[in-house]
Amino acid sequence: MAGVTYRGFAPATSLARWGMAAVAVGIVVGATAPAVLGGLATIAIDAPDGLPWLLERVFAFLGYIAMTGSVVYGLLLSTRILDAIAHRPVSFNLHQELATWGIGLAAIHGALLMLDTSVPFSIAQLLVPGLAPHAPLAVAAGQVALYLALIVTVSFHVRRVIGQRTWRILHYTTFLAFVGVTVHGIASGTDSSAPWAQWLYLGSAAVVTFLLTFRIAMAVLERRALAQPAETAHLPFAVRRAG
Prior knowledge:
mainly alpha, 77% helix
């Protein structure tokens, strides 16, 4: 993997690739937008008090998808899988922007909780883990995960100050943030029992676990490859060549 260099997609396939992406987006939007807009209109007219709850759930899932995308993208970067089709600086920026979007969407989700009349949150309950009026442990997991993600995101901007090694070590807390936000979504979400939500959480966890395991396996193999020349350096040339 170390020898992978940027090649990109063939320019001749650009129109086909973007066209297929546009068709896929169009199918998803066309199939879901009428039902979503109709549901929002019905709630806004018949039960306006329920609109904050619906919106905070929407932003919660959007924030989770963005954070998961950032973690997955970071693992793809560390395994160098993306290097063959995308410039590393571009990939790195997208990884960072996904994390920022995830934090922003999660913050909107939290702010909407204060407008939800069914289980209203105060500012203290929103910011301090353990004070939530609903599922305090599960909500605390999400709050801690958000703070960890915020620390990691800020570290992008002070990487030269804290040093590359410290930044890399700090970056590992991203996985703790992912675990926390997944536990938060499953244990505290009132709609996490829905099949599509279960598949979202289980699928995200499976992808992250697979890529993390693959990355660890790569690191072990790389260390063994680096250690092998040192282990055989004391042997006679003929023995090393035969090995």
